[in-house]
Design goal:
The chain has 169 residues and is an alpha/beta fold. The protein is 23% helix and 34% strand. An eight-stranded mixed β-sheet has the order 4-3-2-5-1-6-8-7, with helices on both faces. The model has no long low-confidence stretch (mean pLDDT 91).
């Protein structure tokens, strides 16, 4: 299973404000993100991120696998699946026979997938703004990781999409 982490990031390295807000993400980036998700067919997302963006999630035409500790969560939508561990999330994506899944987590979900060794690639859309403080992409799990840059794409509006592969952990 190829898991691709996709995060928007500020120039000073934060994926959200301390309150978890990422309303600063541009429409251009949102379109690229949604296209990547639909291409993969499967998205892995943390519960907080899933609940924060009701206009985006559940994403139409995509299996939405939501990582949560709350075992009472359920959905009437047949394309929304609540799981309680990283391993269970990966198993669910594999059960649906997807080769690739997009991870759109916050710090906790990203760290959990990274710590378990499931992140293979990263797309970062770098936004031309500074938040000053906020949530890191990996929480405290990113120390000692090495990445190789595969591609750089200008998206317009000052946005740059960086594509990396994990070299070592």
């Amino acid at each position: 299973m190829n898991i691709i982490l996709y995060n928007a990031v500020s120039l000073d390295g934060f994926i959200a404000t301390l309150e978890g807000d990422s309303d600063w993400v541009s429409d251009v980036d949102a379109e690229v993100f949604e296209a990547k998700c639909k291409e993969a067919g499967c998205i892995l997302v943390g519960r907080k991120t899933f609940e924060q963006f009701p206009e985006l999630y559940p994403m139409d035409g995509v299996e939405n696998i939501v990582l949560t500790r709350d075992e009472t969560m359920s959905s009437a939508n047949e394309r929304v699946h609540f799981v309680h561990s990283v391993q269970e999330a990966v198993e669910a994506a594999e059960k649906f026979e997807y080769q690739t899944a997009i991870l759109a987590g916050g710090s906790k979900a990203n760290s959990s997938f990274l710590k378990a060794g499931f992140v293979n690639e990263i797309y970062l859309s770098v936004h031309p703004l500074a938040l000053g403080e906020g949530l890191k992409m990996f929480g405290e799990q990113g120390e000692g990781l090495s990445f190789k840059l595969l591609d750089v794409t200008e998206l317009g509006e000052g946005l740059v999409l960086l594509h990396y592969t994990l070299v070592s952990s």
